[in-house]
Specification:
heterodimer; A: alpha/beta; Peroxisomal Thiolase, Chain A, domain 1; 2 domains; twelve-stranded mixed β-sheet; three-stranded mixed β-sheet; 21% strand; B: Peroxisomal Thiolase, Chain A, domain 1; eight-stranded mixed β-sheet
C-alpha cells in the first residue's frame, strides 16, 4: 500500500487525557486500573475508567447526542488540539472531502440499559426523551464526530468487536486510495457499560485483579474505556519544501485483515487468523519481519488469547520486543485498536518501548521477548495487533518517516 | 467528481413477500404481483448444529442472502472479502439483555453476549463458509446500505478484490420498536467484482450527490424502502431487475446520498425468472 500520514493523533484513556499524560504513564509503566464501582455493577473486577466523563456534557448544539460514550468522544477530540488540526484539514480539503470512520463495540448502549430501569410500570414504555439513534445505535459516535465538525462527506461506524478501532484504518485507507476523500478522521470510542461487564463475566473472562497479560498467573481481562483518534492524509508528494516530512512523522505503512472461521468467542488455538493478519500487514507494508522493532500485542490476559497470539507471533518473529499495554489501560474493546495505534505512534515519535504493566512472571510457555520495563529506544517500524469476537483480526504497521535514513 | 465503479455479478435477497432474488426481480418488474407477508427466515446453512442452534434472526437473514448471492456467482465463498452492514443488530437479543441488566439478577447467558456483537453474522458466515478473508462490519443507521456499498466498492476499486456485500435488518420487539420501528427482516447481498466476468449483470458507477433519493412507483415497495434501512437498496435492484440503463439516487446520510449509474452488461439475459445464474 501507499503509506499514509498520521497528520495528527490523540488518545484519552484511564492513563489520562491526551498524549502527554499517556506518554508519562507509559514511560513510568504506570497503569490506570481501579476497582470497579461502575453503575450497578457488583462484580469483583477492575476497570480502566476515564475520570470525570459524566461531568462534561456534549456541546449544546449537539445535545441530542448526549450520553457517556459521546461525552468521552468529545473529551478525546478536544485534547492535543486534535479538533484544530481537523478544522484546518477541512479548510484545505472541504467539508465533503473528509471522511469519518469510528470504531465502537457498544456505542451508547448504556443509555438503553438505564432506560430499561425506568420503563413505565404499566405500559413497559421507555422513558420520554430516550433517543436511540443518537445514543445507542452503533453509528452514534461517527454521527457525533461528523456533526461536531460539520462534515458533509462519508461516515461510518465500524463495529467488529475488539478489532473495530484497528479496522477503521483499513476502511479509511481504501477510501483514500479511491480518491473519494482527501483526509479521514479515524478512531475508536468505547465506554463502560453493563452489557460488556456482565457479558465478559458470563464468559468467566473478568480478572478479579488488574489484568496481567502474558503472566503465568493471568486470569482474564480488565475492561477499560477510551477515545483515540488520528487524522489520516496522503503523504505530501509536492516538490516544495513543505512536502518534507519531519523524521519523526508517523506513517501508516501496512494493514492486514483476516477472519478465523473458527469460533464465535474463542480464537483459533494456533492463532492462524492472527498470523495471516500479521503476514498481510507486513506484505502490504513491503517489509519483512526483521524490519519490525516492536509489537504492541492484542494481549488481553485471557489464557486463550495470549497462548494463541504467542503462537502466531513466534511462528513469524524471532525475538522482536513486544508487550501488551492492556495491563495499563484495560481492554478498551472497540477503541483498543485505535488506542494502541496511538500508543504505537508514540513509541515511534518519542522513542519508547512501553512495558507491559502488572505482569511480573512471564508465562514460560509463551517464548516472547516481552518488555517488562519501559525503555528508551528508536524503533523505526512497529506492528499493532487487534483481534475480536467472531474471529475478526486486524494488524497495522506504523513507521517513522525518517526510518529509511537509519538503515 | 470522483466515482467508484464495480460490476455486480449476482444478487441474493430475502424480505417481506420476497422469497429470493429471481422472485424479487419478477415483483420489481411487475409490482402488481407483490403479496406482502412476513419474511420467512430459513435455518442458517453451513453451520455445525451447535452453532446453528445459537443463531438469531440477524444471522439467518444475513447468511440466507449471502449464500444465495455466492451460489449465483459460482464463486467459492472462502475467496470473497465480505462487507456486512446493518442499521442495528439483533433487537430481540438486545431487548433481553437490557431486561436482564435492569433486574436484580443481572447474570447474562454467554451465548446472548457473543450474539450481541454487531459482527456476529460476519463471525457465523466465516465459520459456515470457512472464509478467512477480510471482513468489514459497518453501521450508518438508516444509511447503512449506502455505507456498505461504498466500503465494498472501495475494496473492489482500490485493491481489485472481489467482495460480497451483505446488508440486512430485522425487527425490534416492544418497547424498542417504539423508538426503532423496523417492521420485519430484509436482507440483500451483492457480489461485486473489478472486472466484467461472463455472469456480470451490470456495471455500476457511484458518486456522492445531494439530490433526493429515488422513490419507487409501487406504494407497497416504497413503504418497504422507507421502513427497512437495508431496503434502501431497492431503486438499484429495480434497475437491475429491469436490465435497463438507469441512474438512481440511494439514501445514505441525511445530506449526502449516492448517485448510482447502472449499465446492464451486454448479453445479460432478462429477469423473467428464467435466468440460470439467479436460480
Amino acid at each position: 500500500m501507499k503509506p499514509l500520514l498520521l497528520a495528527h493523533f490523540t488518545a484519552t484513556s484511564c492513563l489520562g487525557r491526551g498524549l502527554d499524560a499517556t506518554l508519562d504513564a507509559l514511560r513510568a509503566a504506570r497503569g490506570g486500573l481501579t476497582r470497579c464501582d461502575f453503575e450497578r455493577a457488583s462484580l469483583d473486577t477492575w476497570v480502566g475508567a476515564v475520570e470525570g466523563v459524566d461531568a462534561q456534557p456534549v456541546r449544546a448544539d449537539l445535545s441530542d447526542f448526549e450520553c457517556r460514550n459521546n461525552r468521552l468522544a468529545q473529551i478525546g477530540l478536544t485534547q492535543d488540539d486534535f479538533s484544530g488540526h481537523v478544522e484546518r484539514a477541512i479548510e484545505r480539503y472541504g467539508a465533503g472531502r473528509v471522511g469519518v470512520f469510528i470504531g465502537t463495540s457498544t456505542s451508547g448502549v448504556l443509555e438503553t440499559e438505564l432506560a430499561y430501569q425506568r420503563r413505565d410500570p404499566q405500559s413497559g414504555a421507555l422513558p420520554p426523551g430516550f433517543r436511540y439513534a443518537q445514543t445507542h445505535n452503533p453509528y452514534s459516535p461517527a454521527a457525533f464526530v461528523r456533526a461536531y465538525f460539520g462534515l458533509r462527506g462519508p461516515a461510518t461506524a465500524i463495529s467488529s468487536a475488539c478489532s473495530s478501532g484497528a479496522k477503521v484504518f483499513a476502511s479509511a485507507r481504501r477510501m483514500l486510495a479511491t480518491g473519494l476523500i482527501d483526509a479521514a478522521i479515524v478512531g475508536g470510542v468505547d465506554s463502560l457499560c453493563l452489557t460488556t461487564l456482565y457479558g465478559f463475566n458470563s464468559l468467566e473472562l473478568l480478572s478479579p485483579q488488574p489484568c496481567r497479560p502474558f503472566d503465568v498467573d493471568r486470569d482474564g481481562i480488565s475492561i477499560g474505556e477510551a477515545a483515540a483518534f488520528a487524522l489520516l492524509e496522503r503523504v505530501p508528494t509536492g516538490d516544495g519544501s513543505s512536502a518534507k516530512l519531519d523524521d519523526n512523522a508517523v506513517l501508516l505503512l501496512g494493514v492486514g485483515e483476516s477472519s478465523d472461521a473458527h469460533h464465535m468467542s474463542s480464537p483459533h488455538p494456533d492463532g492462524l487468523g492472527a498470523r495471516i493478519a500479521m503476514e498481510q500487514a507486513l506484505a502490504s507494508a513491503g517489509l519483512d519481519v526483521g524490519a519490525i522493532d516492536y509489537i504492541n500485542l492484542h494481549g488481553t490476559a485471557t489464557p486463550g488469547n495470549d497462548i494463541a497470539e504467542s503462537r502466531a507471533v513466534t511462528a513469524l518473529f524471532d525475538g522482536t520486543p513486544c508487550s501488551s499495554t492492556k495491563g495499563a489501560t484495560g481492554h478498551t474493546l472497540g477503541a483498543a485498536g485505535a488506542l494502541e495505534a496511538v500508543i504505537s505512534a508514540l513509541a515511534l515519535r518519542d522513542g519508547l518501548l512501553p512495558a507491559g504493566v502488572n505482569t511480573t512472571e512471564l508465562d514460560p510457555a509463551l517464548p516472547l521477548d516481552y518488555v517488562l520495563t519501559s525503555r528508551e529506544a528508536r524503533p523505526g517500524a512497529v506492528l499493532s495487533n487487534s483481534f475480536g469476537f467472531g474471529g475478526t483480526n486486524c494488524s497495522l504497521v506504523f513507521g517513522r518517516a525518517g526510518r529509511a535514513q537509519l538503515v | 467528481m470522483t466515482r467508484v465503479s464495480a460490476f455486480i455479478e449476482s444478487v441474493g435477497l430475502l424480505g417481506p413477500g420476497l422469497s429470493d432474488w429471481p422472485h424479487a426481480a419478477r415483483v420489481l418488474a411487475d409490482p402488481t404481483a407483490y403479496v406482502s407477508e412476513r419474511t420467512a427466515l430459513p435455518p442458517p446453512a453451513g453451520l455445525p448444529s451447535a452453532e446453528r442452534r445459537r443463531t438469531g434472526p440477524v444471522v439467518r437473514i444475513a447468511l440466507a442472502a449471502g449464500h444465495e448471492a455466492v451460489a449465483a456467482s459460482g464463486r467459492d465463498a472462502a475467496t470473497l472479502a465480505t462487507v456486512f452492514t446493518s442499521s442495528g443488530g439483533d433487537g430481540h437479543n438486545c431487548h433481553t439483555i437490557c431486561e436482564t441488566l435492569a433486574g436484580d439478577d443481572r447474570q447474562l447467558s454467554p451465548t446472548r453476549f457473543h450474539n450481541s456483537v454487531h459482527n456476529a453474522p460476519a463471525g457465523y458466515w466465516s465459520i459456515a463458509t470457512r472464509a478467512m478473508a477480510p471482513s468489514s462490519v459497518l453501521c450508518a443507521h438508516d444509511g447503512s446500505f449506502g455505507a456498505g456499498l461504498l466500503d465494498s466498492l472501495c475494496q473492489v476499486a482500490a485493491d481489485g478484490t472481489p467482495t460480497l456485500l451483505i446488508a440486512f435488518d430485522t425487527d425490534y420487539p416492544s418497547p424498542m420498536r417504539e423508538v426503532r420501528p423496523i417492521p420485519d427482516a430484509f436482507g440483500v447481498a451483492l457480489v461485486l467484482t473489478p472486472e466484467a466476468g461472463p455472469l456480470a449483470l451490470a456495471r455500476i458507477d457511484v458518486q456522492f450527490t445531494d439530490a433526493p433519493a429515488t422513490v419507487l412507483a409501487s406504494r407497497e415497495l416504497e413503504r418497504l424502502r422507507r421502513e427497512i434501512p437495508a431496503a434502501r437498496s431497492l431503486p438499484l435492484l429495480d434497475a437491475l431487475a429491469a436490465q435497463r440503463a438507469a441512474s438512481v439516487v440511494l439514501d445514505y446520510l441525511p445530506d449526502t446520498r449516492l448517485h448510482v449509474n447502472i449499465v446492464p452488461s451486454s448479453g445479460a439475459s432478462g429477469v423473467d425468472g428464467s435466468s440460470g445464474r439467479a436460480s
